[in-house]
Amino acid sequence: MRIFLFVIIYVSVGDEENDGGDEEYQNLHDEELDILKNLKSHKTEDIQKGQDIKNQMIHWDKTLEKMTLLHKVYSSSNNLPQEP
């Protein structure tokens, strides 16, 4: 008997607090679905961008390495004897 009364009280309180809650929940759910669709549709583009950035970083590292090697050569050339 107590359980039955508890259920009735819970349902009546739940109905009073449910002023537009279902509508808000549905709106949030729809927004989440839109975001997921957007992420799935741009998946290949994002993968390509990631690979391009990775390649760019590799090229930049190689360029810096070559610059440091050239700097050593130029610095050494300053130590060569100069013509009078």
Give your account of this protein's structure.
The protein is mainly alpha-helical. It is 87% helix and 0% strand. The chain is built from 3 helices and no strands. The chain has helices spanning 2-17, 21-41, 43-78. Residues 46-83 form the AATF leucine zipper-containing domain. Pfam families: AATF-Che1 (PF13339). This is AATF leucine zipper-containing domain-containing protein.
Summarize the structure.
With 84 residues, this protein is mostly helical.
| N-to-C order of helices and strands | HHH
- Radius of gyration over C-alpha positions, nearest whole angstrom: 34 Å
Q: Main β-sheet, in a few words?
A: none
- Unreliable stretches (pLDDT < 50, length at least 5) are 1-15
Mean pLDDT: 79
* Estimated helix fraction: over 70%
- Overall geometry comes to rod-shaped
**Number of DSSP-assigned strands:** 0
Count helical runs: 3
- What separation lies between the terminal Cα atoms? 114 Å
**SS content category:** mainly alpha
- The fraction of residues in strands falls at under 5%
